[in-house]
Amino acid sequence: MTAQKVCSVDELSPASARRVVLDGVAIAVVRDSEGAVHAIGDTCTHGDISLSEGFVEDDGLECWAHGSKFSLTTGAPLNLPAYEPVPVFAVEVLDGQVYIDPSVRLAV
Fold first, then answer.
1. Which of 21, 47, 62, 67 has a CB 3.0–4.6 Å from the CB of 55, allowing a cystine?
2. What Rg do the C-alpha atoms of the chain give, in angstroms?
3. What is the average pLDDT across 90-106?
């Protein structure tokens, strides 16, 4: 499988996330406060909630429902109540466009 274009970097505000579905896989595309783009599984492992509706803080994405925060680089939960990680996907930015390959998991 190859990477698919999901949006332009300009469509992602700093410290924001958006949900995309690629080949049936829900992914949160996140631009952290420093401008780096990340792609992690969009479903909180604690409560089956969309993480893209949550809050981007530092290197994490926090679930709005119960407060679990997940690392944008490893997918590991950074606090309870979640204890299972979310997947992290390969993301590439080329000419201002964001590409994700849902078949390439960097973690989990």
1. 62
2. 12
3. 95
Amino acid at 99: Y
Percent of the chain exceeding pLDDT 90 equals: 90
Domains of the chain: 4-107 (2.102.10.10)
Helix (H) or strand (E) holding 30, with range, is: strand 25-31
Token duo for residue 104: 């390439």
Q: What are the tokens at 68?
A: 């679990």
> Cα separation of 32 and 81, whole Å?
23
pLDDT in tens, 37-68: 999 999 999 998 999 999 999 899 999 999 99
Question: Of the candidates 67, 4, 60, which has an alpha carbon nearest to the alpha carbon of residue 30?
Answer: 60
Q: Which of 57, 68, 54, 66 is nearest to 18 (CA)?
A: 54
